[in-house]
Amino acid sequence: MENAKKKNKFVGYLEKKGVLLSAKAYFVDAMSAMALGLFASLLMGTIFGTVAKYIPDGNVIKEYFTLLSSAGGATGAVIGIAIAHSLKAPMLVMLSAGVVGMFGNAYGIEMVIDGVTKTVTAGPAGAFIAVLFAVEIGKLVSKATKVDILVTPSVTLGVGGLVAMLLCPAVSWCMYWLGHFINYATTLYPLIMGIIISVVVGIVLTLPISSAALCAMIGITGLAGGAAVAGCCAQMVGFAVISFRENRWGGIVAQGLGTSMLQMGNIVKKPIIWLAPTLASAVTGPIATCIFKLECTGVSAGMGTCGLVGPIGVFGDMGFDAMSIFGVILVCVVLPALFSILFNEIMRKLGLIKTGDMKLDL
Q1: Residues 149 and 200 in one domain
Q2: Which of 26, 265, 309, 343 has the smallest CB count inside 10 Å?
């Protein structure tokens, strides 16, 4: 009885401080916020840098876009602030989390790769882990003393730095080899891996977790990144077109340029509506890897047609030529729409899906 009271008192104290120990808060809300942080820094910096490459040297416009491309250098700090904001951290904790994000993003280990010693950083995954620990511990001491302006940032930074030093080397090693395995395996087995990556990343995109953050953390690149783009586009474009009966043009924009995550409520009610876009991704993934050999890197690979970031990422990696342009149009837009409609209409004919199953409150 006494132990139960102590436990309830401790849990009550954590809740009072805003420490919820919630899987949803950490792996749904925080990861979604992390994706926004990646979008506002690394992704935008990459887009601006791509634009800068096609502007002739020696003019102020190129200098302007080159300046904007440096946004990627703030990735760790922006991730830290984004995660802290999603966890409703107090101001001092949130600002300190920006520095912790920088620690985690930049800390790593030296590895011998192809005979050359290179520094491999923990990247977004390291920032994510370090910030989670730092923010939750920082909350516990926030406004607990009269010298809060010293105690809170000291504890938050101290915990974040310690976690970065203890865990980020292992995170660096794991993320490097996981990404290396996926990227290398896709070059060896583009058909099989094209299907697997396209389906898995596409499903993650529609789930309430971040496919963009996942792709950034494992360092997906090359053909594997192209397969990821295909899978994400299949989900977004697929749901946009097969739900046109219910959601009309508002649904096309909201899902095709926004997110297929909007359908999660309907998927929970009737999971079979998810089948058509997922089957479409199983078709477009290997087309991307085997025929058009589309390539994409990191966070762009997990964005799909959201703001057209996925296609832009492909052009950023491959440049603008006939094969890449034709491949993006087919793999990212035309084929996902056609195959999703085909599979969806078959299921409608079989009575498995009916009008109204994918209705959104737009």
Answers
A1: no
A2: 265
